[in-house]
Amino acid sequence: MTAHINPADDVKDSGDGDSLRKSSLTSGKVVESGSNDVITDETPYVVDKASERALTRKFDLRLLPVLAVMYLFNALDKGNLGNAQTAGLDEDLGFEEGQYNLIVAIFFIPFVLFAPPVSMLGKKYGPARVLPILMFSFGTCTLLVAATHTFGGVFALRWFLGIAESAFFPLVIYYLTTFYRRGELARRLAIFYAASNIANAFSGLLAFGVFQIQSDRVDFVWRWLFIIEGCCTIIFAIFAFWYLPHSAAEARFLNDDEKALAYHRIQVDSSSVVNEKFNLKESLKIFRRPTTYAFLGIEICLGVPLQGVSLFLPQIVHGLGYEYVKTNLYTVAPNITGAVMLLILGFTSDFMRIRFPFICLGFAFTFIGFIIYAAITDVQAQLRVAYFATFMMCWGTSAPSVLLSTWYNNNIAHEGERITLTSVGVPLANLMGLVASNVFRLEDAPKYAPALIVTAVFGATGCTIAGCLGLYMMWDNKRRNRVQGVNLTAKDVPTMKLRDGPKVPEFRWFL
Hints:
Elements: H1 22-25, E1 30-33, E2 36-39, H2 49-62, H3 64-86, H4 89-92, H5 99-106, H6 108-113, H7 115-125, H8 127-145, H9 151-165, H10 168-177, H11 185-210, H12 223-243, H13 256-269, H14 280-283, H15 290-318, H16 324-329, H17 332-352, H18 356-375, H19 383-410, H20 415-431, H21 433-439, H22 449-484
Antiparallel strand pairs: 1-2
C-alpha cells in the first residue's frame, strides 16, 4: 500500500489537525512513475507546521528508541572483545603473539565485502524485516563466543559477526530517509548514533559489573559478558521484527491523513520517487560523480580514529595505570561526553541546515585529542591532562560519522544511489579498523605513541578534505545562481529536480 497525494483532490479535515490542505499542494503537477505518483514541481516547504510536528513526534517516539536500542546492541556485540581482552581473554585461550590483533582485524573483511549485497537485499525486502534478522544473527554470534575455547573458534565467529553487522548501519540510514525530510535527518541520526557512544560507555560499565561475578559455572569471568549481551540482543531482535513498520504507508500508528502527509514530505524533500524499485545499473551511476570519491576519502580518514577509539579506548585508558576492572569503569565518562557532543553538533547542524563545518570541527577534536596524548612524555605523571585527551578523542569520532552520512544522503535524491553509496562508504570507514588494529601494537603499549600519531594524521587529513569539498559546494551553488540569475539554496529545489544530480541546472548542493 502506498499513500498518494493528488493536488487536484480535496482532502477532508479529520478534525485532528493532521489533514492536508488543498491550497498547500496546488503548485505541483503529478506524473506517473511505476506505481507511485510523483510530484514534480513542488518546493519542499512545510504543508502544515502543526501537522508536520505531530507526525515527526510520532516517528521520533515510535521509531528512534527501538532503532537506538538495536544499534546499542550492535555496538556492544562488536566492541565487547576489547573489554574481554582487559580481563585476559588472550591469555585464557592461549593466543600466540599477534593473534588478538588478527581476531580484531578479520571482522572488517566480511564487513566490507558483504555490505553492498546485503544492503541491496535490505532495499529489496525492506529494512524493517532485514534489520531484525541481522540483529538476531550477530546476537547469536556473540552468544557463541562464550562457548569457544580456541583461537580458531573466536576467529570464525568474528568472521560471521562481520557478515551479520555489515549492512546494519547503512540500512538504518536508508530506513530513516524514508520517514524524515533532509533537514530533519542529522539530529535523528545523532540520537540514533549516540547509542553507539552509550554502548561503549555501558560496555565498560557492564564489564565492570560482570567482572565482579563470582561463579564456578564458567571457567573465565569474561564469558558472562558474551552470554548476557548475546541473549539480550536475540530477545530484542524478535521484538523488533514484530514492531518495525515496513514504511510510513504501512505504519499502524498513523491514520490515513498522516500517511498521505508522510508520503508527500519524502516525495518533495528526500526521495524523487518514494519506495523506488531497486535498479543496480541506475544505482551504480553514483560512482560517475567526482564528489563521490571525496566523500569516500573522508570516510577513509574518519575510519581510523573511529575504530581506534571504539576498539582500543580500554587499552589507552589502561595505559594510565589502572587495573583492568577500574579501566573499564574509566571508559564510561569519555564515551558519555562523546554522545553529548554528538547530539550538540547534530542538532546544531540541522538547525543551521549545514553539515561540513561541523564535520571539520569533529575531526579537529580528534586531531587535538590524539596529539595531546601523544605529546605527553609520562602520562601517569600528567594523569588529568592525559585523561582529558581521551575525552577529546571521543568528542571527535562520532559526530563526523553521523554528519558525513547525512551530508551525502542529503545530496542524493535517487533511493538506489543513496543506499549504494551508503553501503560502500560506511563499511569503507569500518575497513579502516584494519589500520587501527595493526597500528595499536602490543610492543608499543602502554602509550601506543606511533598509533596515536597515525590516527591524528588521518583526522587532520579528513578535516582538510571535508573543508575543501564544502567550499567547492558553496562556490558551485553561487556559480549556478549567478548563471541563472536567481538566489536558490538546496531547500528551494524539489527532489524530483535533484534526481539526476549536479548535471541538472536546478541542482543545488546541501552544504
